[in-house]
Design brief:
Rossmann fold; 2 domains; binds 2-acetamido-2-deoxy-beta-D-glucopyranose
Amino acid sequence: MFFSLKSLSITMAFLRLVVANIQDVQTRAAADNTQERRISYDPDLQQQLTFPLFELADPVTTINPTDANFGISAVAPGRFLTSADGTKIFTEARGDPSNPAIVFIHGYGHGAMVFDDIFNDPLWLNRVYLVRYDTRGHGRSDKPTNAAAWVSQRLAEDFDAVVQSYNLIRPFVLGWSLGAVQIADILSFHPPSYISGAIYDAGVPYLASLPNVTSPAASAVIPGLNETTNVTEFQSSYIDFINLCHPALEWDFYLGCLGDGIVQPRAILNLSFSRTQNSTGLLQAGTSGALSALAIFGGDDRIVLNQGILDAIAGWQNLTVVTLPDAEHFTWISRPVLFRATVLNWIGA
Ligand SMILES: *[C@@H]1O[C@H](CO)[C@@H](O)[C@H](O)[C@H]1NC(C)=O
Ligand SMILES: *[C@@H]1O[C@H](CO)[C@@H](O)[C@H](O)[C@H]1NC(C)=O
Ligand SMILES: *[C@@H]1O[C@H](CO)[C@@H](O)[C@H](O)[C@H]1NC(C)=O
Ligand SMILES: *[C@@H]1O[C@H](CO)[C@@H](O)[C@H](O)[C@H]1NC(C)=O
Ligand SMILES: *[C@@H]1O[C@H](CO)[C@@H](O)[C@H](O)[C@H]1NC(C)=O
Ligand SMILES: *[C@@H]1O[C@H](CO)[C@@H](O)[C@H](O)[C@H]1NC(C)=O
C-alpha cells in the first residue's frame, strides 16, 4: 500500500469517503476471506484502488548491493537507468503519463524518498505525472567518487536519461534545496525550451550563489557532514541537519532522511558542493524571458536565505514568488495543501 497515513490525512472529503469504503471493503473481505468476493463488492472502488497504485506506478525492483551503490540491498518501486557515463540512476514515476510531467530533484544528503508525501497523494496523482530520481551520489543510485563523474555535463546527462526513459516532452523541473542547482547544469547543455518551467522549492539557483543563500546555521553544520574521523561529530551534525530541515518529522521519515545520509560516501559532499558549474545558460534563459520560474519559499526556512536566492536570479523576467507562511525547509511537509495548490495552479494542471 503506497498511501501513508499522513497523505491520507491531508486529502479532502471525497478521499475520506474512499478511505471509509476501503476499510469497509477490507473488513468484509477479511470476513469472507476471498479476493474475488472483495472485487465484486464495488468495481468502481476497485478501479480507484488499482489506479494509480499499481497500473500507473513503476514495478517494485530489487536493489542488489554493489560497490557503486555503496552496498545497498533493498526492494523499492522504481527502476535503474544507465546514464551516459555508465552511472546507474534509480528512478521512479507514478501517475498518468498523459498529464503534465514534473521531475523532482532532491537536495544534498537526501534521496528521492523525501517526496513520498507528494508521490502518495491522490490529489497530485490525478493531475500530474510524477517523476523522481536519486541523484548520483545519493540514495539507491551509484555513488562515483572520482572528479570526472562530477563535471556539470554528467548531472545534465542523468536528467536526460530520466527524460528519455519516461518519454517526457518538456517536463517541468522541481528542484529542492541544493538539488535545484541541477537546473543550471541542464540549461548549460540544452535550450530553455527543453523544459516547460523551473520550480525552485527553497532551491539554490547555482553553486556560485551558495555563500549568499546558505543560512549561518546550515553553514555551521555542513563541515560535520563531511567528518570522516570523529563519529560523534558526524552523527550529531546529521541529526542537526535533518532537524534544521524540519524540527518535527514523523519518525519513519526522519529515520529515512538519516538513512540517506548514511548510505553516502563522505567524499560526495566535497564533490557536490565544490564542483564547477556555469550559470550562464540558466540566467540567460530567465532574463531573456524564455523560461518561466516559480520560487517557493518556507517562511521559517532555517537552511536557505530566501532573499539571497532572489538576489541570485535578479532580472528573471517571468518569476512567481510564493512564500508559504510558517513553512520549514521541507516546505511541502509543512504546508502540503498550500504547496500542492501553488504548484498545480502555476503549471496549469
Ligand atoms: C553575493 O552577495 C553580494 C552582496 O549582495 C553580491 O555582491 C555578490 O555578487 C553575490 N555573489 C553571488 C555569487 O551571487
Ligand atoms: C568529536 O566531536 C565531538 C562532538 O562535536 C566533540 O565533543 C569531541 O571533542 C570530538 N572529539 C575529538 C577527538 O575531536
Ligand atoms: C570536506 O572535507 C575535505 C577534506 O577535509 C575538504 O577539503 C573540503 O573542503 C570539505 N568540504 C566542505 C564542503 O566542507
Ligand atoms: C575537495 O574538492 C576540491 C575541489 O574539487 C578538491 O581539490 C579536493 O581535493 C577535495 N578534497 C577532498 C579531501 O576530497
Ligand atoms: C559559460 O557558458 C557560456 C555560454 O553559455 C560561455 O560563453 C562561457 O564561456 C562559459 N563560461 C565558462 C567559464 O566556461
Ligand atoms: C509566465 O509564466 C507563466 C507560467 O509558465 C505563463 O502562464 C505565462 O504565460 C508567462 N507570462 C509571460 C508574459 O510569458
